[in-house]
Amino acid sequence: MTPVDPRALRDAFGCFMTGVTVVTTTTAEGKPVGFTANSFSSVSLDPPLLLVSIANSSSNLTAFAAGKGLAVNILAEGQKDVSSTFARPSDDRFASVYWRQGPVGSPLIAGVSAWFDCTLEQVVPAGDHTILIGRIGAFEATPAPGLGYYRGAYVTPAQTAAQLPTGPDVVITAILECEGKVLLQDDGRGGLTLPMARVGREGVQVALAQLIAGTGLPATAGEIYAVYDDVAQGKQHIAFRCPASPGTPAKGSFVDRSPEGVADVTDPAMLTMLERLAAEARMGNYGLYFGTHEQGRVQRIGERKNP
């Protein structure tokens, strides 16, 4: 049998388009460590398992093989710099990224497309690599499209598609209100956001119903509160006020509508909308906003245009 050329074999493997992940764990001393990998795969739904592989030459091998768990962070299209940071030798790869400890215990990077926090299920030696099998204890997926990798280069399908002539994406926002409070969730960037979803072919009503159902709260689709365009992002936003009954949300929590309660909302247009909601709630006189994410007008309920 003819010996295999490692360089040619690597090029052949590169013909398979993959995503890009950063795999993380903590050392016995509690230091976060991680590496960039595209050798990630789902393994099983029951039990929930995944796998990644790490080179035996990696300085992080001992920390991962002897650790209690690991997290797989699927990078978003705008995180090429994060991929590069964790692919290069560095004393502290986490110094330049925002991260937090996951519910199972491994570091989670902000702004990713999805993350999986796992306990270490099995370590399997495999040639010049070691396969790490993780049992998923917690996970989250976001609307952010994932970063791709093909033939040794990054690919960004969603960003490329966004440059083609097309109409705006429609994004709906659910303002779930209960006893003078609103539901806010982690936006993945160190701040808070209202529940949001992109409208697909199923239409606004179905998308809104699914968005509300995903909160785990008894709530109903209410009136439209704001319609505005974000021309720079190519998006049209529709926000609905959705009365909710008391309950425990699937994620996030209810906060006061006060400036202090919504201070961590990172989107300026959303923050302005919530500030208007608080002011109108005090007056008991609500309006409907039309415009852009920067400026527009509020039409009061019952207001009529002159003929």
UniProtKB/TrEMBL annotation:
Keyword terms of this UniProt record: Oxidoreductase
What is any Pfam family matched here? Answer: Flavin_Reduct
Question: What molecular functions are annotated in GO for this chain?
Answer: FMN binding; riboflavin reductase (NADPH) activity
Which ranges carry the Flavin reductase like domain?
13-156
| Residues of the signal peptide | none
PANTHER family per the UniProt record, alphabetical: FLAVIN REDUCTASE, FMN REDUCTASE (NADH) RUTF
User: What is this protein identified as?
Assistant: Flavin reductase family protein
